[in-house]
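To whoever is on call:

I kicked off a structure prediction for a single chain this morning and the downstream step that reads the tokens threw a length-mismatch warning. I double-checked the sequence; it's 461 residues and nothing unusual in it as far as I can see. Pasting both halves so you can look.
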Amino acid sequence: MRHQFAGRVVVLICVFGFVSAIGGQQPARTDAWLDPHRDAASRLLGEALANDFAWQRLAELGDTFGHRLSGSKALEDAIDWAVAQMKKDGLENVRKEPVKVPHWVRGKESLEIVAPYPSALVMLGLGNSIGTAADGIEAELLVVRTFQELDAAGPRVKGKIVLFNAPFTTYGETVRYRSAGPSRAATLGAAATLVRSVGPPGLRTPHTGALTYDANAPQIPAAAVTTEDADRLQRMSDRGTTVRVRLKMEAQMLPDSDSFNVVGEIRGREFPDEVIVLGGHFDSWDVGTGSTDDGGGTIVTWEALRLMKKLNLRPRRTVRVVLWTNEENGLRGGTAYRDRYRDQLANHVLMMESDSGVFRPTGFGFTGSDAARAKIEGIATLLRGIQAGKISPAGGGADIGPSVEAGKIPSMSLEVDGNYFLLHHTPADTVDKIDPMDMARASGAIAVMSYVIADLPERIR
């Protein structure tokens, strides 16, 4: 792997140099303000692309600790590992900031067709779901494609196990069946719910994820089935076959547990109280190793600071990395950060999140003023050599969202080209799906963008 990586780096550096040379031939210049930052940007990219350090660190995280569900010993041991590694990297003010998190436990679970002929189905219980009785729930299956079909079924819903078979379009559109479907079905008397996995077909791989119980509806067990099994059940229903299924889940919610956001910094040399925040969420679902969602995002943002430290680059402002806890089934880390730093949010210059995977980076999404966007677009020209210079209309993230909203802070997100929703929340979310070169490019792009923003004479506004 390292031999292949080195060969690809040589090609990429040659392309980067060629593009830079072409840029240097342009007679008219409007980007002289970037000149003081070009050398640092070049060094950061060169160091990021020189090896597969980021990928190896991500592999170590997943190989050692596996999944990192909130409340688990694995997450807390991984947090201690991250603190130790940040200190080894030489980051400053490395610390754990306490957060109380939900503690949901999956336990054993199964789903099977009982009639017309016995057959096991592939499933994953939805996060925060209640469990079933020890002998499970056996009931007739009712398949619906939309909430409108559910409502139209009316009294036929009572006592049934309802399957929401909504094909994946976009995450925002389709995820509502997972999050709100159980309570919608429960209000009509459903015994339990199943949801088609929220993602594209993926070799019969189920996708878990959190549900949200409505306080005014009964709580019923809920699980996800694969797209292939959902289609199978749909075909059987369309033929008029009466299908009975049995769902067993030991899931339970335990009392809240102690956890932590992990924080490390490169302190600013002139304006240390002005802060650029980078990060991703360190927790994951309890399947796979959470490498795409979102171990990779935590590593590439952390790597940006490690690169600055290694190259002895100290910007005017502080760059802070936060490994957020409990994004998946509570968002407690993001809200705890907002509450802890509420009186300092006015000095947060920008917040950036990486939580869309670490596939080939194409640029960043940005939300902020027109003046700030002009600066960001200028900085992005330093990333043209790795084809990561696109700035999209909007950028943000779940963990930075509470602070961004409270402090009216400009926000960014790493944008990538890859099939994130094929992997996230599945047992297939492991490090082998990630290209080391993509991680190197992502680390370099984040390092350049965050360093230059932090080093500008005037803060972006």
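Update from on-call: the warning came from a stale cache, not from the record. Cleared it. Sanity check on the structure: The chain has a mean pLDDT of 95.
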